[in-house]
Amino acid sequence: MGEVAGDAGAAGASPVDGHVHPTRDDAVARALSEGLGGPVGEHAGRHRWWTPVRVLLALTALCFALGMVQKSGCFERTWQDNQAGYAQMCYSDLPYLYTGRGLVERAWPYSDDPAVRERFPEVMEYPVGISYLAYGTSLLTQAVVGWPDLAPRQALATDQLFVDPEVSQEIRWFMVVSALVFAALALLTTWFVAGTHRRRPWDAAMLAASPTLLLTGLINWDLLAVALTAGAVWAWSRDRPVLTGVMVGLGTAAKLYPLFLLGGVLVVCLRQRRYRELAVTIAVAVAAWLVANLPALLTGPEQWRVFWSFNSERGPDLGSLWLVARDALDTEITAHTVNVGSWLFFGAWCLGVLVLGLRAPQTPRLAQLGFLVVVGFLLVNKVYSPQYVLWLLPLAVLARPRWRDQVVWQGAEILYFASVWWYLGGYLAPGGGGDAGFYWVAIVVRVAGELYLTALVVRDVLRPEHDPVRAAPDLGRGSAAPGPPPGGGAGQETTTRSNDVVV
């Protein structure tokens, strides 16, 4: 494989299966293992059934199940007590959009039927992938409950649907069905992350056991884009530009941010002169995005455009530095100012990532570049919903697989998660009146956590010897490990058994 930064022992790899084990590679994992027998030894054996991937999937399932329990307070009240939801931090968008966007009456999100639009004038304000998923789960829910007669609910005013007893019970089923779909997406994300670096499957434990996944996985439909983003990085690590393009295109049809992975692909391909793969990936991504958008464009072009107009007309919103500036300085900041300022900063940030990637001593890994671009977008975005942490989660785990750094960053995100609900519930307001300054502090702490992880990733790019992944000689040309030449592929590593686990 060429030159490798250190031998297998230095990299924490086991002589049994060649995997890099956290208890030998990560200081925090090694310290925690002391109470459980210490780091993995040289004579450890493989279990016949409990492979790394199966352990990680079980851990993800447990984490997500705990996330469902965390939402049980709101589930019992069918999300009809907002104040209790804020206090218990169990809010979710799904129940409100089920009735508010016509899913309760099986209305196609992009219907241009005047009767539908008169009854439900508010259209799904998300890209088409999320709208399709919400519509599909609503149909599955109604199939589970026996295709209820729509006539009685259509006789009600739309603002009465949420409290109707039959609809209320249906909302619970909608949440259960959605949770199962989201759990499958979380499992798929873990599988992709575990397989991206073949000798480092255990890095995915930082995702599988993530408290941010537990807390935010059920807030909205973001896990669809998260799974597709992780799939794109996995496909690129396996030298599959067509599949990478499909994943990026479909991911962009669910959320805008997976598009930013193409910036990372651009840097890697320019560094390694892989112009054909660059063209193929971009072309396939555009084609996949167009195909995904066609049903919405053909059935309701006006409704399809709502996502774009909604975001352009939005001013400073929850969780953003723009909101801190507006409230702390007591000044008006228009949507136009936010749009121009955000895109100027983000454009400069992307240019900086491009220069960093092209001038780095070695070709950066796609996960590193993708993380840097996405975090730049989130730093100045006009809103930061609590579930946006999921956008960064698989990229952060792959870009900087160190438990200490993940704990620091996710700790900052958890502080923000708690503060946003308490802010909305009015619990952070000073007793004597005035602004909730602690909420501003929480936003700044969240940004500081993201910048902390960003600084470490930038250092790893500039000084590859600090990159934990560089010690594992299993990366393909898409990830650009120091060993293989630019023409080498991930398929060169044929001896690693990624399904083995050491116990």
Automatic annotation (TrEMBL):
Q: Which InterPro entries match?
A: GT87, UCP010361
For bias type Polar residues, the affected ranges are 492-503
Q: Which UniProt keywords apply?
A: Cell membrane, Membrane, Transferase, Transmembrane, Transmembrane helix
Predominant location of this chain?
A: membrane
Q: Where are the transmembrane segments?
A: 49-69, 126-147, 171-193, 213-236, 242-266, 278-298, 340-359, 366-384, 437-458
| Location within or outside the cell | Cell membrane
Pfam families associated with the record: GT87
Topology with respect to the bilayer: Multi-pass membrane protein
> Composition bias, kind Low complexity: at what positions?
1-13
Disordered as annotated region, ranges: 1-22, 469-503
Q: Give the highest taxon in the source lineage.
A: Bacteria
Family classification? Belongs to the glycosyltransferase 87 family.
Query: What is the recorded name of this protein?
Result: Glycosyltransferase 87 family protein
Which organism is the protein's source?
Answer: Nocardioides kribbensis
